[in-house]
């Protein structure tokens, strides 16, 4: 295996073994506590701009199958792990993790003490970093990392959204999804429920959306700072009294912004498959799949939206709804991929709202 290093903006330099592509990539280093689901996570467009570190110590065991992809390829900038399994075993395995990363030009580094690094990030927060398997000195790489723009300064949604309309499934109801970096499982969740899905570029104008005569609009998940995606916030405001609107993750943040809430960057985010979320009305607790670094802040009860669900680990907002209009959203991922299926009922709820409207 080739030599590789991980350099962080605070000056940390970690040497390890490289796998995947021989290259240098930059991004915000974040950690994910899911024990499995590395294929789904690497291909989740919300990870664009991030270097993904898995806390589970052995990764790659069951290999790779394109059916598990959440988009057309790897969207994360790099992968940091403790131990790489080089001989995967699984009935559906078609490739291995190293080849998978190589196919998409993405570097990986293993033999890293990921747990110590996670403790560091939990203490000081997410950090910008680079993985490199090239011949660049530590000093030079560190200054490149420090010069690299912060995640809040990059328009990542534009890099992952579809360039033209796409159509999926059939049925007697139609849903427009504004593609900010949608995961395939979200589209699948509606197609399975006999819904025609029209996927539009995130910048589609309100008039263009209405021309499709949809029964509702869903604002998808996606990477980066929601405050940068101003045109979608405008679209949500324009459509709010015309159609039901649902939001997942970035979509939840954009709907919240459209109705006056604020956004803050979390210290190290929520990324994993076991985040407990409580539904305030029913008192039920769900185990949810999460991947976000920003969160919604609703400090005033004068806003037209109210909190429906909260995170039981840190009390952050996990769900909101409009006080009068059929508009609701969640911060977590009801479609799973990877993660538990506890909250798949939300898709049935969305569909019921569409059908009744
Ligand atoms: N999965 C997502 O949609 C992420 C939303 C947003 N980019 C965040 O990091 O908070």
Automatic annotation (TrEMBL):
Catalytic activity as recorded in UniProt: hydrogencarbonate + L-glutamine + 2 ATP + H2O = carbamoyl phosphate + L-glutamate + 2 ADP + phosphate + 2 H(+); L-glutamine + H2O = L-glutamate + NH4(+)
Sequence ranges assigned to domain Carbamoyl-phosphate synthase small subunit N-terminal in this UniProt record: 2-132
Residue numbers binding L-glutamine: 46, 222, 224, 250, 253, 291, 293-294
Keyword Amino-acid biosynthesis: yes
Membrane-crossing segments per the record: none
Protein's pathway: Amino-acid biosynthesis; L-arginine biosynthesis; carbamoyl phosphate from bicarbonate: step 1/1; Pyrimidine metabolism; UMP biosynthesis via de novo pathway; (S)-dihydroorotate from bicarbonate: step 1/3
EC number: 6.3.5.5
Keyword Aminoacyl-tRNA synthetase: no
Annotated region (CPSase), positions in chain: 1-173
Gene Ontology terms describing biological process: 'de novo' pyrimidine nucleobase biosynthetic process; 'de novo' UMP biosynthetic process; glutamine metabolic process; L-arginine biosynthetic process
Class in the EC hierarchy, top level: ligase
Superkingdom field: Archaea
Alphabetically ordered keywords of this record: Amino-acid biosynthesis, Arginine biosynthesis, ATP-binding, Glutamine amidotransferase, Ligase, Nucleotide-binding, Pyrimidine biosynthesis
InterPro entries: Anth_synth/Amidotransfase, CarbamoylP_synth_ssu, CarbamoylP_synth_ssu_N, CarbP_synth_ssu_N_sf, Class_I_gatase-like, CPSase_GATase1, GATASE
Record-level Gene Ontology MF annotations: ATP binding; carbamoyl-phosphate synthase (glutamine-hydrolyzing) activity; glutaminase activity
Residues of the active site: 249 (nucleophile), 333, 335
Gene3D superfamilies to which the protein is assigned, alphabetical: 3.40.50.880, Carbamoyl-phosphate synthase small subunit, N-terminal domain
Function: Small subunit of the glutamine-dependent carbamoyl phosphate synthetase (CPSase). CPSase catalyzes the formation of carbamoyl phosphate from the ammonia moiety of glutamine, carbonate, and phosphate donated by ATP, constituting the first step of 2 biosynthetic pathways, one leading to arginine and/or urea and the other to pyrimidine nucleotides. The small subunit (glutamine amidotransferase) binds and cleaves glutamine to supply the large subunit with the substrate ammonia.
Quaternary data: Composed of two chains; the small (or glutamine) chain promotes the hydrolysis of glutamine to ammonia, which is used by the large (or ammonia) chain to synthesize carbamoyl phosphate. Tetramer of heterodimers (alpha,beta)4.
Protein family membership: Belongs to the CarA family.
NCBIfam families registered for this protein in UniProt: CPSaseIIsmall, PRK12838.1
HAMAP family (alphabetical): CPSase_S_chain
Protein name: Carbamoyl phosphate synthase small chain
């Amino acid at each position: 295996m080739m030599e590789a290093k991980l350099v962080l903006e605070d000056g940390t330099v970690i040497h390890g073994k490289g796998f995947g592509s021989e290259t240098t990539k930059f991004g915000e280093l974040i950690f994910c506590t899911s024990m499995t689901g590395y294929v789904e996570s690497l291909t989740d467009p919300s990870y664009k701009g991030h270097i993904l570190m898995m806390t589970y110590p052995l990764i790659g065991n069951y290999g790779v199958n394109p059916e598990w992809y959440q988009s057309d390829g790897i969207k994360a900038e790099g992968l940091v792990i403790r131990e790489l399994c080089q001989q995967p075993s699984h009935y559906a395995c078609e490739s291995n993790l190293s080849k998978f990363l190589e196919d998409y030009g993405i570097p990986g580094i293993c033999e890293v003490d990921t747990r110590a690094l996670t403790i560091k990030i939990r203490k000081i927060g997410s950090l910008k970093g680079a993985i490199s398997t090239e011949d660049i000195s530590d000093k030079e790489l560190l200054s490149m990392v420090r010069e690299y723009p912060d995640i809040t300064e990059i328009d990542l949604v534009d890099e992952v959204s579809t360039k033209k309309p796409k159509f999926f499934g059939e049925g007697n109801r139609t849903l427009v999804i504004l593609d900010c970096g949608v995961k395939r499982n979200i589209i699948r969740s509606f197609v399975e429920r006999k819904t025609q899905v029209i996927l539009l570029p995130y910048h589609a104008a309100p008039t263009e959306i209405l021309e499709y005569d949809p029964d509702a609009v869903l604002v998808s998940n996606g990477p980066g700072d929601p405050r940068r995606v101003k045109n979608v916030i405008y679209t949500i405001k324009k459509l709010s009294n015309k159609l039901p609107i649902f939001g997942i993750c970035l979509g939840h943040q954009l709907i919240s912004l459209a109705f006056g809430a604020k956004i803050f960057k979390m210290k190290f985010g929520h990324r994993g498959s076991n985040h407990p979320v409580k539904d305030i009305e029913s008192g039920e607790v769900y185990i949810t799949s999460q991947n976000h670094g920003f969160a919604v802040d609703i400090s005033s009860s004068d806003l037209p939206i109210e909190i429906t669900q909260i995170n039981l680990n840190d009390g952050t907002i996990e769900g909101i709804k409009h006080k009068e209009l059929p508009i609701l959203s969640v911060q977590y991922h009801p479609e799973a991929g990877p993660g538990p299926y506890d909250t798949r009922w939300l898709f049935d709820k969305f569909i019921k709202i569409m059908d009744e409207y």
